[in-house]
């Protein structure tokens, strides 16, 4: 479990690295508030890129064992955005159009020295 304070892409890559797993994330499953979506579009920004790269979301990102999926699948408080894979498959996002993209971290790095 990790908080999404440095951007979803950065944090999901941390989870993958620490667990020696890959991920398949689904763009259509990423929860984006309608006001956030509209504001991103107003500034000619891609709402998904904002969700992946923005920070300070104060949300938690976590994984569960697949045998526990039925326990949370209908929760209104949990968004299921993908699933973990073996490390050889990599860290991927499937776009709304079905195109597969490698996930890269563009979030904030508090340890980066200038």
Tally of helical runs: 4
Order of helices and strands: EHEHHEHEEE
Helical residue percent? 25-40%
Output the CATH class name: Alpha Beta
Main sheet properties: 4 strands, mixed
Provide the low-confidence segments as ranges: none
For the CA atoms, what is the radius of gyration? 14 Å
What is the approximate shape? globular
Tally of extended strands? 6
Write down the overall mean pLDDT: 89
User: Per CATH, which architecture?
Assistant: Alpha-Beta Complex
Main attributes?
alpha+beta; globular; 114 residues; 4 helices
Please describe the topology of this protein.
Elements: E1 2-3, H1 8-19, E2 21-26, H2 34-42, H3 47-53, E3 60-61, H4 69-72, E4 82-86, E5 91-94, E6 100-102
Parallel strand pairs: 2-5
Antiparallel strand pairs: 1-3, 2-4, 5-6
Structure write-up:
This protein has 4 helices and 6 strands. The N and C termini lie far apart (29 Å). The chain has 114 residues and is an alpha+beta fold. The protein is globular and about 40 Å long. Strand 5 and strand 6 form a beta hairpin. The strands form 2 sheets. Strands 4-2-5-6 form a 4-stranded mixed sheet, with helices on one face. It has a single domain, classed as Phosphoribosyl-aminoimidazole Synthetase, Chain A, domain 2 (Alpha-Beta Complex), CATH 3.90.650.
